[in-house]
Amino acid sequence: MSSDADYKALVAHGRRILGGVRIGRPGRSHLYWTLFPPAQILRLRYRIHVHGRSHVEKGPAILVGNHLSLLDPVLVGIANRFRVTFFTKVEVFERIGAIFFRWTGQIPIRRGDEASTKWALEMAADAVAQGAKLSIYPEGTRSTDGVTLHRLHRRVLIPVLQANATVPVHAMTIAYTDKRLWRQNVEIRFSQRLTIDFDEKSADEITQDITEALIELGGMPYEHTFSRIHTSAREST
Fold first, then answer.
1. Which value, in Å, is the radius of gyration of the alpha carbons in the chain?
2. Dihedral of the CA atoms 128, 115, 32, 159 (nearest 10)?
3. Is residue 229 part of a domain?
């Protein structure tokens, strides 16, 4: 766990890497639990059902999920009484609504930038050391059709798993199902702890194991191509 001085230096380094973007206190925001009660207003729009919560024990964990909507990690957060920290593309910190991501201590990352990725991984390690649940969405962007699981990127997933080898890892799926009047049902599922062993398996094999765990847990179709959605068409899902 980083000392306060080391943490402040790491945050300052991140601001320089990201061109002075206001990033708050990634992984350590004091406002996270203050925002938890008002965020529950989303339950007026979404009826959330959580399955397998008992599989996720107290303490740090890595939650590897499929990605359908910008609200995925937010709904996971309000439906569970543990701190959820996740990677967010840096552009989000420059838009309207960025204050939410700063105040909840999310970790900005610039795609394709090695220095930004290295820094984000250090911030993630600190968050895990603080006892947070680190959510990773290795598809890299949202599903093209809001249902299908796409091929997982290894760029962040594998380094995170290697750096936190003793931390429990769980598959996590989310599905937006039928609507009743104005409320939409949301199904969130957690798997039992996954076996991650880099001594016995290659990075490709572990990525495949996680892919299969997601498919088994969520029952969604799979396409072995990277998701390519870059528009905001589904941001309101």
1. 17
2. -30
3. no
∠ CA 60-185-187, nearest 5°, is 35
Residue 237 has pLDDT above 50, yes or no: no
DSSP string across 59-102: S-EEEEE----TTHHHHHHHHSSS-EEEEEEGGGGGSTTHHHHH
Dihedral (CA of 128, 2, 89, 234) sign: positive
For residue 235, being part of any structural domain is answered with no
Structural domain for 81, as ranges: 4-221
How do residues 163-213 score in pLDDT, each as one tens digit? 999 999 999 999 999 988 889 999 999 999 999 999 999 999 999 999 999
Query: Could you give the number of structural domains in the chain?
Result: 1
We report the CATH number of the domain holding residue 37 as 3.40.1130
Helices (H), 40-97: 72-79
For 189, the token pair is 């599922």
Residues 6+ apart with CB under 8 A from 237: 68, 69, 70, 71, 146, 176
Whether the predicted model's global pTM rises above the 0.85 cut: yes
What is the C-alpha to C-alpha distance for residues 133 and 151, in angstroms, rounded to an integer?
Answer: 23
